[in-house]
Automatic annotation (TrEMBL):
Gene3D superfamilies: 3.40.630.30. Pfam families: Acetyltransf_1. Residues 1-148 form the N-acetyltransferase domain. InterPro entries: Acyl_CoA_acyltransferase, Bact_Acetyltransf, GNAT_dom. This is GNAT family N-acetyltransferase. Residues 132-159 are annotated as: Disordered. Keywords: Acyltransferase, Transferase. It comes from Streptomyces rutgersensis.
Amino acid sequence: MLIRPRGSGDLAQAAAALVAVHEADGYPVEGVSQPEAWLSPSGLMAAWVAEQSGLIVGHVAISRPTGGRTGTLERLFVLPAARGRGAAERLIRVAEGFAQAHRLGLVLEVLAKDTAAIRLYRRLGWTETGRRTHHLDSGDSYPSLTFSAPSPAEPVGTA
């Protein structure tokens, strides 16, 4: 499985994969009516795809709110048929490396219903920082959790 930066030619295939994930898992709860736009949020800094046998099977992005030194990890998904092979972890690790190289903190928000994602973030060392309610433009709302990325380890021999 290849993890690489998302190119402009990848957007349609990534959008189709997102719709398939939504049909299987109910993720995301918004954005599937215009998946290409949803995959390119305001403040998008970078996005990556997981590719297997020439097909886009996963995606992740980092966006940054106006100003600040914190990026938001978002738009993470992997097709059900491609799960169990480490794609989500590899996508997250690439995003963490980008954030570290750009001296950005990383945060994310995940709906409480997405228990597999929550288990993954915790396993990868992300720290829960709070609980809130995620409000949609439709008026619906969902309980959610916020997380921050693990701090990069200090190089050996420094104090």
